Amino acid sequence: MTVPRPLLLAGRLDQLRSDVHTTHRRQFRRLLDECERYRGEVPPAEHPQASITYFGPTAANLALAYRLTGQTHYLAELRRWLAPPVSFPHWGKAHMPDHDLDAGWLCHGLSLAYAWAGDSLPDDERAALRDKLILQGTRLYDFAVASEGDWWSSSYWQNHNWICYAGLATAGYVLVDEHPPGREWTERAKRNFATVLELLPEDGSNCEGVVYWRYGVPWIASYLDVLRAAEGLDWFADSPYLRETFWYRLYQAAPDLERIVDHGDCHDRRSGHSAAFYYKLAAEYRIPQAQWLANRVLDDFFWREAYESGVKPGVRPEAYQELLWYDPEVPEQDPGSLPLGRVFGDLGLVVGRTSWSPDACLVSFKASPGGGHKAWEASHRMAVEQGWTTLNAGHHHPDAGSFVLLGHGAYLAVDEGYSNRKLTAHHSSVLVDGKGFVNEDRYHVYKGLPHRHTARIRTATVGDGWVHAVSETAAMYEPELGVRQVDRHLVMSPRGTLVIVDESAAEVPRAWTWLLQTDNPAEPVGDGQWIAAAGSGRLRVTALEPGDTDDEVVATPIAANPTSSTPSLSLEKVQHTLRRTTGPWERARFVTVLEPLAWDDDAPSVISVREGDGARSVVVDVERDGDREIVAVQLDGKDATDALGAEPDIAADGFAAYSVAAYPAGNGPRS
C-alpha cells in the first residue's frame, strides 16, 4: 500500500520533537492531557442519535501524539477510537447523513490520522480506514456537486460550507495517491474557498455572531493550512478577512474578556474562545494581542469554557491545532493600548467600551441587511445571474437597530441568544402596530427577502471615550405598514451613560412600541424611571420623551434547538421586556437615558432634555456624583455644536458632546 504523505507534518517532525521540550512544552502537555482523557471514555459502538463530530479531532490528537512520541499506547488508543466511525454505515444520523457537519469533521480529523499514523496500523485496519474515507469523501463530494446553487455547497458565508469543504479537501489531499478522484475533491474545494475569500467582508466581521465565528471561521484557516502544505499556495497573505477578523472577535468580547457580546445565535455567553485559532491568527498576521489572548484563555478561561460551553466538541479537542499553530516568535501584548471603540462597516457594527478593565461599560450596536452588506449585495446578484441561493444567514437575527449593553460585570441590556423562531420583539428595538421586521417569526428571516429590505448604520463615530452612531431600519418593516422612518441615534459617554433618541414616522398613524430587553424584570420606581437588577450591576432607565406612553414589563420566553444533528438538545430561557407604547401617531420620538450602575449604587441623577437652539435637535443633560455629561443630537445629521451651546469634547455628523465636573454654585456651563 502507498504510504500517505504526513500532511502538515512533512519537514517539521524533527523540529517539533525538539520544540516540545522548550518553546512548545505547554502545547505538548495539553496534547498529552487531552489524549489521556480519552482513555477514560468509551466510544459508542453504534452511531448515536447525537452528533459524532468529536471523533474527528480525537483521532487527530491521538495520531499526532503517536507520531511525535512513538509511544504505542497512543496508537492502541487511536485504533480504539477509529473502529466505531469506520464501522458506522453513515456519518450523521438525525440530519443529512453523510452530507453535512459530521461528515466534514470526520473527513478532516480521520484523514489527518490516516496521514500521520496510517502506516503503523495493521493492514486490514488501515485498508478499512482508507476505504471508509474514500466512501465518505465520495458521498460528500457528490452531494456538493448535486446541490450546487443550494444549501452549503454554495453558501459562501456559512460555517457548513467551510467545514464540509475543508474536510473534503483534507481527505482529497491525503488520499489522492491511492484514489486519484481525490484531486477532483481538492480542486472543487479550492474553487469554493477562492470564492469564499473573495466574498467575505474586509472588516473581518461575522453575521452569525461570536459563537458561530468561533465554531466556523477556524475551518477557513484549517483549509488554507492544508492547501499550503499540499500545494505550496499561501492564501493567508491575500485574505483581508482573516487579517482583520481577530479584531471582530476581540471587540465582541465582554469587558472581562471571558464572556461575549451575544448578537446572533449564541448557545450561551461563554462559548466564544479558541486558543488554537488565536495562535494561528497571531502567527500568520503577527498580532501580539491574539497571542496574548490565546495564553490568557489557557491560563484563566480554559476550564470554564470547556465545561460550560454549549458548543461541541468545544475547546478541549483543539489541542493538536494549538501545538501546530503556535509560533513562539510572536510577542504578547495585552489590549490596554488599543482604541476603546471600533466600527465594522460591513456588518454595521459599532462597539465601544469605557476602558479595557473587567468592570468597564460596553455597548454594541448594529444595523445591516441580512449577512452584512457585501453578502447581501453578492447573494442577490448571484440569485439574478445564476438562480442560486447562496445566503443562508439563519443565525443572523432581525436585530438591526438593536444594542447590547454591559457594565459593572453584568449584562444590562441583553440579546436573546439562540432562537428557532426569531422576532424583532426579542431585541431592544421598535415595533410598529406591534409588528417587527418583515419575514420574521421563522428561523431564516432573510431567506427570499427582496433586496429593498436593507438596514444600515448611517454614521458612526468612536473617539475620546465617546461612541455615537445612527441606524436606519424603516425598510425592514412590512410595506403595508407604510413606515417611512425608524432612526435610532445612540450615544455612549466616557462614563458609560447611554443616550438614545428614536425618531419614527409612517404614512398613517401607527402605534409605536419601544423595547428594552433585560435578564430580570425592570421595576418601576416612579417619574418615568425603572431599575433592572443584574447581579453585580443594575440598569437605571429614564424615559424623557414622550410622557404619555402605556408601559408594561412582560416575560419573553426564548426557545431553540441549536443543532438539528441532536434533536433532543433544547435551550430555553426567559428574558424580560420593558414595553413603552404610544400613538397611534404619524410621528413619534422616544428619548431615553440608560445608566449602568454598580449593584449598590443609589446615587440619584439629575436628567433633563430640551430642544436645541438649532432646528430638529435634542440636548440631554445628565448629572450624577459630581459629573455632568451633555449630549446634543441633530436629527438631520447637521452640525450639532450650536445646539450644544458650548465647545464640544467631540463632534461629528449630527452629534456633539462634552463632559465636565459639576458646576460650582452660581456658575453656568463652560462656553
TrEMBL record:
<feature type="domain" description="Heparinase II N-terminal">
    <location>
        <begin position="60"/>
        <end position="297"/>
    </location>
</feature>
<keyword id="KW-0413">Isomerase</keyword>
<keyword id="KW-1133">Transmembrane helix</keyword>
<dbReference type="GO" id="GO:0016020">
    <property type="term" value="C:membrane"/>
</dbReference>
<dbReference type="Pfam" id="PF16332">
    <property type="entry name" value="DUF4962"/>
</dbReference>
<keyword id="KW-0732">Signal</keyword>
<keyword id="KW-0325">Glycoprotein</keyword>
<dbReference type="GO" id="GO:0016853">
    <property type="term" value="F:isomerase activity"/>
</dbReference>
<dbReference type="InterPro" id="IPR032518">
    <property type="entry name" value="HepII_N"/>
</dbReference>
<keyword id="KW-0472">Membrane</keyword>
<protein>
    <submittedName>
        <fullName>DUF4962 domain-containing protein</fullName>
    </submittedName>
</protein>
<dbReference type="InterPro" id="IPR052447">
    <property type="entry name" value="Dermatan-Sulfate_Isomerase"/>
</dbReference>
<dbReference type="InterPro" id="IPR008929">
    <property type="entry name" value="Chondroitin_lyas"/>
</dbReference>
<keyword id="KW-0812">Transmembrane</keyword>
